[in-house]
Amino acid sequence: MDKIPNLPNVKPELLDLPTIQKLEPIDDLNHPPRILMLYGSLRERSFSRFLTHEAARILEHFGAEVKIFDPMELPMVGSVPETHAKVVELRELCLWSEGQVWCSPERHGTIAAVMKNQIDWIPLEMGAIRPSQGRTLAVMQVCGGSQSFNVVNTMRLLGRWMRMFTIPNQSSVPMAYKEFDEAGRMRPSAYYDRVVDVMEELYKMTLLMRGRTAYLTDRYSERNERSRNAIDRHIQKL
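Structure (tokenized):
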């Protein structure tokens, strides 16, 4: 195939020309959007867990199927084989999900170890399967003191590294001990309204993304790499 004018480094046969038609959703999408929720604290009175359950109620009202992973008894990364029951459970939930919500308390100015440990157990690749790539992601944090955005910023970085589509909106709840009642329900406030906003946006973006992620995450560089590998394998057989 002839070279593309002004793009001599590009292989024309591997370059996709995006169209609206190629963004048509594929697969059976009659099921409710599948949302996995992770929280980052093992405390009995965990505000990140309270906030996660509050957000789950909103998503369920919109029509999502929600599953919340319990991080209790999930070992530290590298301390047990990947066949450990909790590791298998987490990874299967990631594969099941079409969108995710990550909610962590702030510990020493950053993400909690419990939260990071869950993310670290999620591999970028499992053979040809990518448990996180193409999923939508919403991030939330709870603070013991004044409002901070350290944790949501860190989780955005992690989400990008995991090749997830992180929505623009986010939630940060300061002085979380004031925002939840004894039953763990969030009190009415502007912070609660923001949680509704975030879940509404996540739900909408998940509806838009699902059935299209295979095309949206198909990259020229990866097609080029596969092509080179195929040529190398052919040469080795000669």
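The mean pLDDT is 94. The chain is about 40% helix and 15% strand.
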